[in-house]
Design brief:
The chain has helices at residues 50-61, 78-88, 112-120, 139-150, 165-174, 192-199, 208-214, 234-245, 250-257, 261-273, and strands at residues 4-7, 26-30, 38-43, 68-72, 92-95, 124-127, 153-156, 178-181, 203-204, 248-249, 277-280, 283-286. The protein is α/β, with parallel strands linked by helices. The chain folds into 2 domains: 4-214, 3-Layer(aba) Sandwich (Rossmann fold); 234-286, Winged helix-like DNA-binding domain superfamily/Winged helix DNA-binding domain (Arc Repressor Mutant, subunit A). Strands 1-2-6-5-4-3-7-8-9 form a 9-stranded mixed β-sheet, with helices on both faces. A 3-stranded antiparallel β-sheet has the order 10-12-11. α4 (139-150) packs across α5 (165-174).
Length: 288
């Protein structure tokens, strides 16, 4: 474990100095990105769907080679996925746990190895709590304000109706940060919060290029002028094959896929995010 150092306010990341309730001090392990980096906070539910996981991984993977640092809370669920996706993409990532940074108290204990990997990859752990301070009910809302305050924008991947993730989104608005959200299936309880945020004015994000534009970058387009997409899963290939023959009503397509309705709807939502299908007048088509 690297040495934990105490940062005075003059050494804070600049954006954190702008919020109305900044911390008095911060504890840092590892290395913060240089001042030219843009911070993107990625948050989501502990209980997530396969769609949420794949959408987060796909969007973050598209940020490779840009000076972007992915901030999240080291929590079980989509926070963990965001950190791991950032590491896989070669991006800097910053974890802001709801505890002190000493491994004896680092929360959650199951992510201590992930914390070490973040440090080994040149990232950072950041907390306003003393190194040996344990996590508690009161520490997480305080932690959430740091994640919102650090960022240029907050991306909400999935959130239920009463998800704590929505607290971070509200704080981001209070701090005049951009709030971005991944649209989800109307049938998925994990998408209630994100769809609600979009209704309230959050920017919907369906591709890495849109995410880069929201962060102030000019995304590169493939030579053919089309977005690059990740390889399809077996179920996704099956859906595309069925739609190659003819457009199908959603219920009929789900029946032919032989998947549980929730899984099928998540799969179809992900294919729509990838730009491969579209739905019109009650039928699902392959995109042109």
């Amino acid at each position: 474990m690297e040495k934990i150092i105490k940062l005075s306010p003059e050494r804070f990341p600049p954006a954190l100095k702008e919020i109305n309730d900044p911390p008095e001090a911060l504890y840092l392990e590892g290395t913060l990105p240089d001042k030219n980096y843009t911070y993107l906070t990625v948050v989501g539910s502990r209980r997530y769907s396969r769609y949420g996981q794949e959408a987060a991984e796909k969007l973050i993977s598209g940020l490779t080679d840009y000076p972007i640092a992915v901030v999240s809370g080291l929590a079980i669920g989509l926070d963990t996925i965001a950190h791991r996706a950032a590491l896989a993409a070669g991006l800097s990532t910053i974890a802001v746990p709801g505890s002190g940074l000493d491994r004896a108290v680092l929360h959650p204990p199951s992510n201590r190895r992930l914390a070490d990997q973040i440090i080994e990859a040149g990232g950072a752990l950041l907390s306003e709590l003393e190194p040996l301070a344990p996590a508690g009910v009161h520490t997480f809302p305080r932690r959430n304000r740091l994640m919102a305050g650090l960022a240029k924008a907050v991306l909400v991947v999935e959130a239920g109706a009463k998800s704590g993730t929505l607290i971070t989104a509200r704080l981001a608005l209070d701090y005049n940060r951009d709030v971005l959200a991944i649209p989800g299936s109307i049938f998925a309880p994990t998408a209630f919060g994100t769809n609600q945020l979009i209704r309230q004015g959050a920017t919907p994000i369906t591709a890495s290029e849109e995410l880069l534009l929201a962060l102030g970058f000019e995304p590169e387009i493939s030579p053919a002028g089309k977005r690059q997409t990740a390889p399809l899963t077996e179920s996704e290939e099956r859906a595309v094959e069925l739609l190659t023959v003819e457009p199908l009503p959603r219920d009929e397509l789900i029946r032919r896929l032989s998947l549980a309705p929730a899984d099928a709807n998540s799969l179809l939502a992900l294919l729509e995010i990838k730009g491969l299908i579209k739905e019109s007048l009650g039928e699902i088509y392959l995109s042109a």
